[in-house]
Amino acid sequence: MYKEKEQVPEFEDFYVPFGGHLREDNRWVRLAAIIPWEEIEAEYKKCFSKRIGRTAKTVRLALGSLLIKEKLQLTDEETVETIRENHYLQYFLGYESYKDEKPFDPSMMVHFRKRLGPDAIAKINELIAKRYQEQVEAESEKKQNKENQKDDHDHGNRGQLIIDATCVPQDIRHPHDVTLLDEARRKTEKIIDTLYEASELTIKPRTYRKQARIKYLNFIRGRRRTKKEIRRAIRTQLQYIRRNLRTINELQNKVPSTTLSAKQRRDLIVIHEVYRQQVQMYKGKTHSISGKIVSISQPHVRPIARGKAKAAFEFGAKLSASMTEHGMIFIDRLQWEPYNEQEDLPTQIEKYKRRCGRYPESVHADKIYRTRANRAYCEARGIRLSGPPLGRPIKETLENKKIVRQLRKIQRLDEAIRQAIEGGFGYMKRKFGLGTIYEKLRETSETAIMVCVLLTNCEKILRDLFMRFLFLLGFKPHKSYLKVLVY
User: Fold this and answer.
1) Which of 181, 292, 450, 486 has its CA 20 to 30 A from that of 36?
2) How many angstroms separate the CA atoms of 442 and 329, rounded?
3) Rounded CA separation 270/291 (Å)
C-alpha cells in the first residue's frame, strides 16, 4: 500500500528543535525545488496495491535517499546515518521537522533501487530535462521578440545533438581464467558439504581440495607464467570442477531439492556455464568467447573492448548517451553485452525529435559514427553530421583558400562542441558514482547509473540558475566561456 503525503512544508516552516531556520540558498533546498515530486509520486503509487501489503515509504524518501547516496558518495549505512544527523537532508526527503532517529534500515536502499528501477529514473530524468529545456527556449523566444528578431529556423531543423558512448566499470576482481576456476571449485566444494550433511552417506566424497588449493597458489604466486603453465593450470582446475559437478549430481538425487539455498542454486547454474565456456576455450586454444562470464557473483558483467591507453578492456555496462545544446544528458541505450555504438545514431536522432519536436540542425560525434549509412540518414533529413567529408581532403589553393580555412574552422568548432559530452562523462565519473559501480545486481546497478545521470542534469540546472543570478549582479564572463558547454 502507498499513502500520499498531504502537504510537504516549505523550508521556512520546517521545524528545527534547536532553533533557527533553513537557509534558502542551501544546495539541498535548491535541489528539492527543481524536482517535480508531485508528478513523480503520481506515477510511483501505481506500483502498489490499494489494499494488500505494508505501507510503503514515500517516493520522495526513496528517490531522495538514492540521490543523497550518489551525490555524497556514501555507502548505504553511511547514507542512513548522514540523514539522521542532517536537518537539511531530512527536509530534502519531505520531513516536517528534524528527527534524531534513523529514517529506515540500510537494507531498504536495495529495495528502493529495485522498486524505482532504471526505467522510472530515466522517465524522471526526461521530465526534469524536458521542463528545463522548454523553459530555456521560452526565455530565448521572449528575448528575441523583445529585440524584434525573426527566427529563420522555426519550421526547420534546430539545435545541436552531441552523442558518444562510454563504459561504466563494475566493482569486480580483475578476471583471470585460473582464478575464476579456483573460485568455482571452492564454491562447488561448499555445495558438496551442504548436500553431504543432508544425506545419509557415511563416507564423504573426495574433493582433493587441499591439493587443488596448493596447485593454484603455486601457480598464482609465480611472477612469469608461460602459456604452457597457464594451460596446465586451467586443465588442472577443470578436472577438479568436473569431478565436483559429477559428485553434486549424484548427491542431488539422494537429498530433497530444497537442501541448497537460493544463492547456492544460482551459483551452481553459473558454474555449469563457466565450466562449459572454459572447456570450449581450452579446446579451441583461445581466451575469448561470446557471452564470456568473468564473475560468478555478477554473471551479467561482460568484457567491453574500448582500446583505451589505460586498458584494452573494461568490465561493466556500455552506455550510448546524447546531450542537447542546453547540456541535458540522456542515456539512449544501456547494455551489458558489447555492441557497436555507430548503430545507435538513427535511434538517438529520432529520440531527440520526440523530446524536442524537431530534428537537430547538426549532430556532433566522433569518427566511428561517420559511416556511409549514417551520413545518408542525416543528409536525407537535412542534418549536418560533424567531421570532414568523405574522399580526399581539399587541396588549398589561392582560389579556395578562404573556403578551406572556413571548413577547418567549422571542424575545430565541431570538435570543441563534441568535447562537452566527454566532459559530462568525466564529471559523472569523478564527482558521482559512475567511475565504479558497487551495486551487485544487474537491476540495482542500472538504477545507480541512471541516478548519476539524473544528478548531473540537476547540477547543470542549478549551475545555470547560479549563473543567471551572477548576470543580474552585473557579472559578465568571457565569451570563450559561453561558447562550449563545460562540465
Assistant:
1) 486
2) 22
3) 12
pLDDT in tens, 372-390: 999 999 999 999 999 888 8
> Do 174 and 312 touch, CB atoms closer than 8 A?
no
- Residue corresponding to grid cell 573556403: 403
Of the chain, the end-to-end C-alpha distance in Å amounts to 41
Round to whole Å and give the CA distance between 113 and 110. 5
Dihedrals phi, psi of 34, to nearest 5 degrees: -95, -5
The confidence score (pLDDT) of residue 13 equals 62
Q: How far apart are CA 164 and CA 334, in angstroms?
A: 13
| Nearest-angstrom CA–CA distance, 194 and 204 | 11
DSSP secondary structure code for residue 259 in this structure:
S
**Closest of 359, 262, 270, 364 to residue 321, by C-alpha:** 364
What rounded mean pLDDT belongs to the chain?
86
CB 338 within 8 A of CB 346: no
Per-residue CA distances from 424 to 143, 294, 487 (Å): 28, 29, 6
Q: How many CA atoms lie within 13 A of 253 on its CB side?
A: 5
How large is the average pLDDT for residues 330-359?
A: 93
- For residue 254, which phi and psi values (nearest 5 degrees)? -110, -5
Q: What is the Cα 17 distance to its own chain's centre?
A: 39
CATH architecture of 156-172+302-438: 2-Layer Sandwich (3.30)
Q: Grid coordinates in use for 112? A: 528502493
Alpha-carbon distance of 280 to 198, in angstroms, equals 34
Q: Which residues pair with 437 in a beta bridge?
A: 170
| Calpha distance 465→453 (Å, rounded) | 19
Domain boundaries, the chain: 21-115, 156-172+302-438, 177-284
From CA 89, how far away is CA 83, in angstroms rounded? 6
Please give the Cα distance from 206 to 35 (Å, whole number): 60
Classify burial at 367, counting beta carbons within 10 Å of its beta carbon; exposed 0-12, middle 13-18, buried 19 or more. exposed
Identify any residues that bridge with 323 across adjacent strands, giving them in sequence order.
Answer: 162, 329
27: amino acid identity, one letter? R
Please list the alpha-helical segments (H only) found in 147-261. 177-198, 209-220, 227-252
Residues forming a β-bridge with 316: 169
Q: DSSP 3-state assignment of 359?
A: coil
Task: Indicate if the pLDDT at residue 126 is higher than 60.
Answer: yes
